[in-house]
Amino acid sequence: MIGLIGGTLFGAKELSDLAPNVSRGTPRSPDGKYLVVPGPIGLLVLGGKPETWTVEDPGALSECAVANGAAAAACVAKDRVVIVTPEPKAPAAK
After folding, report:
1. pLDDT digits over 13-30, tens only?
2. Which of 41, 47, 52, 89 is the one with CA 20 to 30 A from 69?
3. Can you give the pTM of this predicted structure?
């Protein structure tokens, strides 16, 4: 059995182990490398380094899908589509 509970992947070591083909409009990115899950404090984005993207009303989000490279996510919120992008990264200190 493979799945996701509370943002934790079980029964698989990598997201690519979930299934070889990814359906459009699912929480997995089209390339299968990222997964997005709405949670109580924002969007949990898995793949590479796990991140939580903050949003204004995280409890209203559902039915999320993520783009390749985790460039953006689209979710349903209060009968409309909301586009969420990651927060800008701080420049690396020299």
Report:
1. 766 666 666 677 788 888
2. 41
3. 0.74
